[in-house]
Fold this protein.
Amino acid sequence: MAGMTTNSRPVPDPSEEILSIVDENDEVVGEAPRGEAYARGLRHRCVFIQARDARGRVFVHRRTPTKLVFPSMYDMFVGGVVGAGESYDDAALREAEEELGVRGLPRPTPLFKFLYDDGAGHTWWSYLYEVRCDVPVDPQVEEVDWHAFITDGELEERLGDWAWVPDGLAAYERLRAYRAS
């Protein structure tokens, strides 16, 4: 059932969003609602966007407890699932603007794609992007419980202290290696 926002507009049930189901080569093999894809461990597509402010600080946030995957955990990326028929690039811009609560962002820059698979039923093709957000953010209350822009050093210091989403940590490790190469 859909929830309600504070201004009484219906919020779509995220578990009903239709996703493309993909194989090990990221080829579409079908479609399924997000809730079913998660429940059955069906591989789908996601985007990760590292957002930085005008000073170069990284946007970090704590997910709401109502998130379908990794509730109440910290993340150093905004992003989410790619809808059925949607491109990675379009999903990256949509997700960045939705989660940051802004409009008119530049199109996020694609960096690389990787397969995330935790061996416990969470598996998705993931495209990692970066974007500069030079305007004040107003994150979605349905998505974000807390947020801040922090320096790379502050992020590194918190890696061992905060409960981070595992796919975000995997993406972050790959991003560090990518930038070091």
Observations:
- Confidence is low (pLDDT under 50) at residues 1-9.
